[in-house]
Design goal:
Length: about 140
């Protein structure tokens, strides 16, 4: 192999590694933004329905495409208390019996919920530490 071939292979490898790192950081930033929004929204939900509400939020986030993300129909459905209560009961049923066969979106939403709960615990620990450092 001559020098130009080695340079092309090296350049391609560097570009691929850079693309993977950029994709990872982009995905992590978007997940963090989603978790921050979920954290703020979950403060409004009652404590006994919090996990169902979070699962509903993650299901909606996964199921909406870019074209439909800001549509009035999806927002109006979530503003309807009867529809929201029905969906929360459905999410509660999914949470209670998570071993049933589920579709891909439900499994993804459950994984997001699990990751969110871990993230929330870390966030609370960091907040407690920062409060202790401010008072000390």
């Amino acid at each position: 192999m001559d020098n130009t071939t080695m340079a092309i292979i090296g350049g391609t490898t560097v570009l691929v590694i850079g693309a993977v790192i950029a994709l990872y950081s982009y995905k992590k930033r978007n997940i963090t933004n989603l978790f921050d929004q979920a954290y703020e929204s979950s403060k409004q939900a009652p404590k006994q329905k919090k996990n169902s509400f979070l699962l509903l939020m993650f299901m909606e986030a996964i199921s909406t495409s870019k074209k439909k993300s800001k549509s009035d129909a999806s927002v109006n459905k979530l503003n309807n208390p009867k529809y929201l209560e029905l969906q929360l009961m459905k999410m509660s049923k999914i949470l209670k019996d998570g071993s049933k066969d589920q579709d891909k979106k439900t499994k993804q939403a459950l994984r997001l919920l699990k990751n969110y709960l871990e993230w929330e615990e870390k966030k609370k620990a960091i907040d407690i530490k920062s409060k202790q450092n401010k008072t000390a």
